[in-house]
Structure formats: structure tokens, C-alpha cells
Amino acid sequence: MLHRLTRWFSVLVVLGGTAGLVWYLTRPEPVSAVLNPVEYGRVDATVANTRAGTVKACRRSNLAPATGGQVAELPVREGDRVKTGQVLMIIWNDDLSAGVTLAESKAIEAKSRAEEGCLRAEVAEREAKRQVRLRKQKLVSEENVDRAVTDAKASGAACRAARAAAQVSVVQIAVARAELERTILHAPFAGVIAEVNGELGEFITPSPPGIATLPAVDLIDDSCLYVSAPIDEVDAASIRTGMQAAVTLDAFADRRFSGRLRRVAPYVQDWERQARTVEVEVDLDDTEDTRDLLVGYSADVEIILDTRESVLRIPTEAVMEGYRVLLFEASTGTLVERKFEAGLSNWQHTEVLSGLQEGDRVVVSIDREGVEAGALATPEPYEGEGASP
Fold first, then answer.
1. pLDDT reported for residue 362
2. Tell me, what DSSP letter sits at residue 271?
3. What H or E segment, with its residue span, contains residue 321?
4. Whether 114 contacts 159, CB under 8 Å
């Protein structure tokens, strides 16, 4: 009897060992799951742009001389910083320069003639007065008096005409200088030269009305920058100028720039079907913080509608459809599904109203193959935007 029990015990041990070996060999491999704990922190309710926005300069001018011609001087290059009024380009203008000199010479001549004529008028005036006195003494005839008075009046008129001609000459100088100025391109404000379309000796032609052509000089005032971005028409009703905003750029993925909404376009753009948007503009707060930015960078804008401090939150990328998450149970090493009630949310964080508690570890890498409820998991720390410090 004892021998039989021993034999059955041995059989059970062998079967158990075999079963354990089979389970061990066929058990599922644990999946690597990125985890982040449920924590307290700030959550903002935001609206964001539907397509990439753009960093723009508060002032940017596509400049060209007012008249066409051959480039005679080009004292600036792309990347140069210029001051207000600095000469950027000069079109050949020797003929117009000569015209200014000629007008100035004519003005001098006209002024001299006016002085001569007015001196003659003074002499004629004095002679007329003398003839009048002599007539009172009956020393000259009435005819002599009439002739002297008439000569005085004619000389006075000639003086006034000469002075008017001198004034016309001054105006002609201004006209000649204005014509000359049309060939000289000045910087309307201080900034940086973004582009120069022209070389010495080439001919520049101004844009015909209604037809856009390349500017001779593209000037940017990069001391003041803002971001322009399209917001979906559905979100436009909830935003107002003055609201706080956050700006992110692909070129500076690790930085967030603060700003304020300065403009909401008073109309809806419908350039693309099924994509009606409202253009918004965000002023960047810190000019020192933005001095490394370049005009034309792509940017994303988040306009903050509401803020809640010190609330339970999780990374938004951990949230599955229906406000569900996968939790990691340390005791079993498995993933379990949990539904929760959400509050405010943005692309970075989602507020937890109920269903989760501080310290729970949620799975962030929900798109990885094998990451599902019931799976064995190997924890991996989260290093994304919403990671715990």
C-alpha cells in the first residue's frame, strides 16, 4: 500500500513538473509598457490651430524703387542690418541729377532777376513820388507825372512777376529732386535684409498695378514678432483678444513661448472645403526669449480658455476612447483596464475627476503591439511632455 502511494505521488510530481515546464515554455512574453503615475498638477482647457501657424514680423516690406532702370548702386546684402532711412539701392539717375543741378541754377538766375527787377521798381517808385511833389509846385507837367507813376506801377508788377518766377524755380527744384528720389530706395524702418532680387547693372522694373513681382529688397523688422494661425470656426466663438496663449515651434521642440491673443479675424476663411477657419494673431510676451526666432518658422498655438491648479491629471496620450486607461498592477505584473471621469483636457494633460487615484500608474504607450488588458508588462519610465518631475 505504501509502495502504491509513493508511486502515485511520484507520478503527480512528474506531471506537475511537466505542467510547470510547459507553462513556463509557453507563457506569454511580457510587453514593455511606458508608465506614468497619476499626479496632482495644473490642467488648462485650450483650443489649438487646425493647421500650422507662422511666425511673422510686425513690420515687413517688399520694397522696390518707384521707377525702373539699371541698378547703379547696391550697398546692402542679404542678412545686413540697416537703419531707418539708409540707402538700399540706387537706379542710374545721372540725367535726373543733372536736372536738379539745372533747376538749382535756374532758381539762382530767377532770384537774381527778381532782385534786379525789384530794385528798378524801387527806383521807379521814388521817381514817381518826386514827380508828384514837383507837380504840386507846378514845376513839371501833368504828362511827366503820369508817365512816372505808370512806370512805377509797371516796375512793381515786374518785380512781383520776377519774384513769382523765382518761387516757381524753387518748386521746380523740388520737382526735380522728387524725380531723383524715385530712383533711390531707402529703408522705411530699421531691420534686417531678408532678400535682394537684383545685381549691379541689372534692370529693375516696378510691379504693374495688380501684378505681384519679386521685390527688389525684402526688409524685415525682427524686433517685434507674432504668430498667425488658423482656428476652427467652431472654437472661434469661445476666444477673445487678451486671452493667454502658449506657442510651440518645431524648431524649438523643448521650449514653450508665452503670449497673448491680440487679434481675432472678423470673418471666416473658406479657402479649403470642409475647413472653415478664423485667423488669429498671438503676440509673444518676452522679446529677449524670442530673439532667436526666425520669421517664417512654423508654429502651433494653444489659446487657454480655463485653468485649474492642483488637480489629479494624467498624460492625454494615455487616454483611450471612452475615457479608459490601462493600469499596471504591480502585484500581478499585468495590465488592467479602468474607466474614469474626465474634466478639463488639452493635448498634454487630462484632468481626472474620479475613477483613478494618486499614485496609480497608467500606460502611456497604448499603441504598442501587445499592450492590452490582461497582458504581462515590464514597466518603462515615461519621459514625455506630461512626465512627472
1. 92
2. S
3. none
4. yes
| Structural domain for 149, as ranges | 94-181
- β-pair type (31-37, 377-381): parallel
Residue keyed to cell 506801377: 153
148 vs 127: CA distance, rounded Å: 6
Confidence category of residue 95, pLDDT binned at 50, 70, 90: very high
Of the candidates 367, 6, 63, the one whose C-alpha atom is nearest the C-alpha of residue 196 is 63
Q: In what order do the strands lie in the sheet with 334-339?
A: 334-339, 324-329, 361-363, 31-37, 377-381
Cα–Cα distance list, 254 to 249, 270, 303, 385 (Å): 9, 33, 19, 9
122 with 196, same domain: the answer is no
* Burial per residue of 125-161, b for 16 or more beta-carbon CB atoms within 10 angstroms, e otherwise: bebbeebeeebeeeebeeeebeebbebbeebbebbee
Q: What pLDDT, on a 0 to 100 scale, did the predictor assign at position 252?
A: 87
* pLDDT for 19: 53
* Distance in angstroms (rounded) separating the CA atoms of residues 80 and 115: 51
Query: Residue 238 belongs to a domain with what CATH number?
Result: 2.40.30.170
- Let me know whether 192 and 253 are in one domain: no
Residue 78 belongs to domain with CATH number: 2.40.50.100
Pair 82, 109 in one domain: no
Judgement on whether residues 230 and 281 belong to the same structural domain of the protein: yes
The H or E element spanning position 284 is strand 277-284
Same domain? For 145 and 191 the reply is: no
pLDDT tens-place string over residues 43-91: 988 888 888 899 999 899 989 888 889 999 999 999 999 999 999 999 9
Tell me whether residue 108 is in a domain.
Answer: yes
- Alpha carbon separation from 115 to 29, 110, 327 (Å, rounded): 110, 9, 102
pTM over 0.85: no
- For residue 37, count CB atoms less than 10 angstroms from its CB and return exposed for 0-12, middle for 13-18, buried for 19 or more: middle
Tell me the C-alpha distance between 326 and 338, whole Å: 6
What single DSSP character describes residue 255?
Answer: E
Q: Are 222 and 202 in contact (CB under 8 A)?
A: no
**pLDDT tens digits for 177-232?**
999 999 999 999 999 999 999 899 988 887 777 667 788 999 999 888 899 999 98
Asked whether the beta carbons of 319 and 38 are under 8 A apart, the reply is: no
